[in-house]
Amino acid sequence: MAILGDFCYISKGMVLNADEKKAKGAFVKDDLISDTIDDIHCRQYIEAKDIERYRVKNIRYLEYNTKRCPNQLSRPTFRELYEKPMLIFNCIGSLKGYYDDNVKFLHNHSLTCAVLWKDLKGVENKSIKASVKRYSRYSRKEMESFSEQVDLRYLLGILNSPCAGVLLSNLRGGDYHIYPEHLRNFPIPLASKERQQPVIALVEQILSDRKENPASDTSVLERQIDELVCELYK
What we know:
single chain, alpha+beta, Adenine-n6-DNA-methyltransferase TaqI, Chain A, domain 2, globular
């Protein structure tokens, strides 16, 4: 049994207040966000309140590539993180995951993202080095190789399933918060690409249905995923 951190770099999103040293008090989060897109507010932006399982229900726009953002943020993370396909999860309550395959969304620290290690190959910074040193059971090269074996949609199907919710509750130990540590240590069944495919196909169908009609009832498809996931854990 592997863990999610063997396949993915996991990080909370940006903290959008002004950095205490660089720009103390110069701006707060709301100063950077707009309901409409323009030359400055040029990137789609979401928070935890904006996502459901398999769906983003609300989008706003973040000021980006300006003097203030991301360079003067309290926690800017790093640009390359938002240029890769990723899974996005909320940080409080029941786990809700979304698959951002088109590299659309910036997000703040109310969301945690998971990016396959292979997709960060060649990206070097202090955050990645510290994560590998502190949390990883394997070398970065080994994790890049491991991540070639999984599909983000397979991982999403697992993590959005009720079966996995029970496992996550055990990791959280009653905590209402979902910390990166919980996701990083979440057990993932090792499966061939052929065995991953039924889960991937169902996830794709749900994503498509929810995109076409946000009110779509995908409960039957989700139950099928849960049955497959429970079987994978046996």
